[in-house]
Predict the structure.
Amino acid sequence: MKCVICKYGETQPGTANITLERGGAMMMIRDVPGEICDTCGETYHSEEVTSILLKEAEQAYRSGIDIEVRHYRKAA
Ligand SMILES: [Zn+2]
């Protein structure tokens, strides 16, 4: 699909590292599948992937992390 950020690039399937922050806690999730713009690098995720990311982040924040790095995994 066409990228809505730069309006020039086309997105390609790939993986990206996503960083989420909340209240001073930071979490990075590696190898998240999505569509990545070949021009500006903007990453698009499906709703399914987004909800998994949010769930992972919620768990991590609740266990009181400062910084955590995880690998993406499908529905736990
Ligand atoms: Zn773009």
User: Anything to note?
Assistant: The longest strand covers residues 25-37. The chain is about 20% helix and 40% strand.
